[in-house]
Every structure is written in C-alpha cells, then in structure tokens.
Amino acid sequence: MRKACLLLPALLVAASLLLSGCWDREELNDLGIMMGLGVDKAGDQIKVTAQVAIPSALGSNTGKNAGTPVTLFHATGPTLFEAIQKLTLSNPRNIFMSHIRVLVFSEKFARDVGIGDILEALMRDPGVRPDYYVMIARNTSAETILSTLTSLERIPAEKLYSALEVSSKTWAPTTTVTADRLLEDMLSDGISPVVTGVELRGNKKEAASDKNVATSDPPAKLYYTGLGVFKKDKLIGWLNEAESKGYNYIRDNVKSTVGHIGCDDNGKIALKTLRVNTKIKASFNKKSEPEIDLTIQAVGIIASVECKTKIADPDIIKELEEKAEQAFVKLLESTVKTVVKKYKVDIFGFGQEIDRTNHKWWLAHRDNWDNDLTRLKVNYHIKYMIKRVGSLDDSFQLDIKE
Asked: How does it sit in the membrane (predicted)?
C-alpha cells in the first residue's frame, strides 16, 4: 500500500507531461499561412504585402469556379512587425509566418532605405525560418510581383521559389540567396552581397486577374533577370546576364549551364557544362601586394553543332576546348572589371581570401578595401574538358547535298 502511495504522484506527474500541449498552440483553422512577403516604401512608412494561401482553393477542384488560390493583405507601419500586426485589420486570421517561401523587396526600397533592418527583424523572430529566398522587384513594386497569378504552380510564391531553385541549377546567370546567407555576407569582411532580380513582363493590367492563368500563354509572366549588387545593405546597381554568369562562376555557384563558342564559318557550337569547380587563392608578390589566382576546372559535352566543323577529329576537340577557355577568361575579366571599376565593391570574396592568407595585412587595409580593390591583380587559370560529343560525330549537315 505504501509503495502504491509513493508511485501515484510520480505517475500523475508523468501523465501531465504527456498530456500537456504547447502554451502558444494555435488551431490550424485559425491561421492564415503566409507564403510570400513583399516590402515597399510608402513615404516614410513600410508597406507590407502578405500573400496568404486559401486552403479551400488548394484542393483538387481546379475548375472554373475554383477561385484564386491566394489572397493578398496590405498594411503600412513605421516598423515591419507593426505593419504585419496591422494586417489583422482586414484579415480574420492570425498570420503564420513559418512557411514563407520568398521575401520580395521593391527596387526603390532596396536603394533608398536598405534591407538590413527588415532582415534583422525577421531573423530575430524564432517563428520565421531563414531558408526563404530573397529577391528584388526590378522596375516595379513588391506588391505587383506577389499579386501576379502563375500557371503550373498555383501559389505564386511557390512558383517564384521553385523556378529560382530549378534555374540556379541549370542556368548560370541565376542564383539562390537565402536570408541567412544574405545576412552573413552583409556582416562579413571582404565580401558584399548580391540578390537576384525579378521583373514582370507583358500585360501588367491582367497579371493579377484570372485571365493570366486561363490561357496556355499567360499575358503577364515573371522572369528572373540579373543580380543586384549591394554595398552594405543598399542596392547600388545591377549585373547584366553575362556578368551574372561570370559572378556565379567565380563564386562556384554553377551546377550546370549551356553556352556556345563560334565556328570558323560564323556558325556556333553549343556546349553543355556539366560540372564546374572554382578555387580562389590569395598570395603576395615581392612588393607585398596581394594577388588573386582564380582557377576554374569545367567539364562539358557538345550539345549541338550549327556549323561545318568536324568534331570527330581529336585535334578539333582540343581547339574547341581552347576556345572555351579563352571565352571563360574574357567573361571573367569583363565581370571583375565592371564590378570593381563601376561599383567599387567586392562581391567575389577576394578580400576574405586575402584575410585568410595574411590577417595582419587585411586588418591594416580592410577599411579602404573598396579602393584598394581597383589595383588588385587577378590571374585566371581555366581548364575546360569536352567529355563527349553527343550521340553523333560530325554534323550530318556536312553530308546534305546542295
């Protein structure tokens, strides 16, 4: 009997632990799941746009009466979270932010205000995971981007996320930038951040209407275009497509991509690059000046032959590899020159490598690094290997009778 009396309190405590719930638990039906967050400038206020999923519209019913799968809520406030809390003035549900897929800043906000305070506020909130993608709305508002309805993916924010993820793995000019990586680049010495740009093309008046998903060729489409260059937390300019590709090669972001080299008869040979490995190494010359050795090894295959070059000849393959290597050097030199001369920031992480090599030198020069960068010598070492020529040898165009 005495043992039973001693065991009873212990069993009650154990049962209470098993049965107790989270103190801040909320019912799913009471939540509005935010998929995308847009930030625009409204005078001296912050305007937020929340793209919230509508559960009833996300089922199997995709017919004429299915309705739009998301709704937008807007609010303004002096700080981010004041504006977000004001969303409840028009939203009957509490906003749940753990499933944010994309954070979109307008170009004007990124240039004039800077994105640091917004990122800091979101990172401080333990309910917001930092694995969402950050992007800049080019020549338009973040609200416009998030209001655009998309095909294939019914939730536009999910489309933006998935499209960027796929593109970054198959097309060199694009890259994914998560919030935690972006904040790390902002806070680190010797590197400045970049953020992917997104723009709306086509009939902007129909972007937010059902007409945009009612046809096989939507009148308005979202495109990723260029990388935004930042100094601290403010946008200062853009890289074009070629420069964005060069940046990603230097930062070892390229998984696979397609490019081309010229033929002697003004035709083209397309190369599909399958594997890229980039190494950046800093050293100091006899004058105690830093230099960067940039080494890239790439492996690719011939994707198409749109000329009369005989690719079955091993000597021709060697010539094509040399042409590819020369094209690489030209692209990388142009990219570095543009960024260094035009923007005077180090988005490549050269400063980080110099810091690792000679910390004492870096401490003495880091405050003036943006100016010292213009005198930095970069040596390029490129090795491109064509592994296969595809299912054909020489192009059958050589055998077509005139």
From this structure: Lipid-anchor
Domain boundary among 239, 274, 297: 239
Show the 3-state SS of 30-63: HEEEEEEEEEEEECCEEEEEEEEECHHHCCCCCC
- This model's pTM is above 0.85: yes
From its phi and psi, is residue 232 left (phi > 0), alpha (psi between -120 and 50) or beta?
Answer: left
* Domain count of the fold of the chain: 2
Residue 115 · residue 136 · CB < 8 Å: no
Rounded percentage of the chain residues whose pLDDT exceeds 70: 86
* Span 111-141, pLDDT tens digits: 999 999 999 999 999 989 999 999 999 999 9
H helix or E strand, kind and range, residue 175:
none
Please give the distance of CA 18 from its chain centroid, rounded to a whole number: 43
Expressed in angstroms, the distance from the first to the final Cα of the chain is 107
Number of CB atoms found within 10 A of residue 185's CB: 18
Higher per-residue confidence, 62 vs 82: 82
Q: Give the integer Cα–Cα distance in Å for 68 and 23.
A: 34
Say if 5 falls within a structural domain: no
Residue ranges of alpha helices (H) inside 141-237 are 142-147, 156-170, 179-187
DSSP, collapsed to helix, strand or coil, labels residue 366 as helix
Residues 243 and 216: their CA atoms lie apart, in Å, by: 33
Do 167 and 73 lie in one domain? The reply is yes
Q: What is the mean pLDDT of the chain?
A: 88
d(CA 56, CA 148): 20
Q: How far apart are CA 272 and CA 67, in angstroms?
A: 41
Q: 226: Cβ–Cβ under 8 A, 6 or more apart, which residues?
A: 138, 173, 196, 197, 238, 239, 240, 241, 244
Convert the pLDDT of each residue in 268-279 to its tens digit. Answer: 999 999 999 999
Residue 364 lies in a domain: yes
pLDDT tens-digit readout, 247-262:
999 999 999 999 999 9
